[in-house]
Design brief:
3 helices; mainly alpha
């Protein structure tokens, strides 16, 4: 299913930022520091298993259920 990475990133950003623009930017920065560039993934981007695993671990660290 293409776009799974995009959906996970969107969920992490939505939950952590609660709609605040400043928080959205902070969450994007955190993901960048952890090696994930949110701007690189679009709804039709191919899914990469290693990136999905990395995002799942990041979500667990942030107490977010995917």
């Amino acid at each position: 299913m293409a776009g799974q990475i995009h959906n996970i990133i969107k969920k992490i950003v939505d939950v952590r930022s609660k709609g605040e623009v400043v928080q959205v930017n902070l969450v994007h920065a955190k993901l960048l520091l952890k090696g994930i560039d949110p701007s690189k993934y679009r709804p039709f981007s191919a899914d990469e298993p290693e990136v999905i695993n990395k995002l799942t671990k990041i979500a667990e660290e942030m107490n977010i259920k995917i």
